[in-house]
């Protein structure tokens, strides 16, 4: 049986690893935000997380063919948001041209940007739900 100190140590290591992951992810995401010129469409970095979702056209994000281009398609980073009438809408954050003509290094950065955005969005969602649970628990007292 594990001692309480060993369990606490493992838990602490896990928490620290998530915080390090998040910090590194944000730093790299900010660099890609500037490098891919997303800043031209969304001036404030934090406003990127007002979008409900982010996706790609022209590049697969499915596990089986992750990062593969779709021949004949155009590469775009697309963000999804709710408009004033609560309807989901798409916005093109960046257009990169025909998939076959985009440089491989740029393709990798595009995929990385979307995946890193999704990771940070998941952290933000977790914080949101943690706060909602706290409201529920406070209401029970």
Can you describe this structure?
49% of the residues lie in helices and 18% in strands. It is of the alpha+beta class and 141 residues long. It has a 3-stranded antiparallel sheet with strand order 1-2-3, with helices on one face. Strand 2 and strand 3 (88-98) form a beta hairpin. The longest helix is centred in the C-terminal third of the chain and has 37 residues, at 104-140. The chain is globular and about 55 Å long.
Give a short synopsis of this structure.
This protein has 141 residues and is an alpha+beta fold.
User: Can you tell me the residue ranges where pLDDT is under 50 for at least 5 consecutive residues?
Assistant: none
The count of helical stretches stands at 2
- Decide which structural class fits the backbone: alpha+beta
Strand content: 15-25%
Number of strands: 3
